[in-house]
Design goal:
2 helices
Length: 60
């Protein structure tokens, strides 16, 4: 999923993936597919929060 050795690049990549999933969830009518994407979105947001926290720790 995250391919860059640079934290900021990975954060940008996650932002794009989250935005894409949020769009999919809004536009896909199939509830089963929507539920799967919601689970993936939840995991991506947790990873995003972890990376932001890690980045904040580096600057202190």
């Amino acid at each position: 999923m995250l391919t860059s050795p640079y934290l900021d690049d990975n954060i940008r990549q996650l932002k794009k993936e989250i935005a894409h999933l949020e769009w999919d969830i809004k536009t896909i009518p199939n509830k089963k597919v929507k539920d799967i994407k919601m689970e993936k979105l939840k995991a991506l947001k947790e990873e995003f929060a972890r990376l932001l926290q890690q980045r904040g720790g580096e600057h202190q």
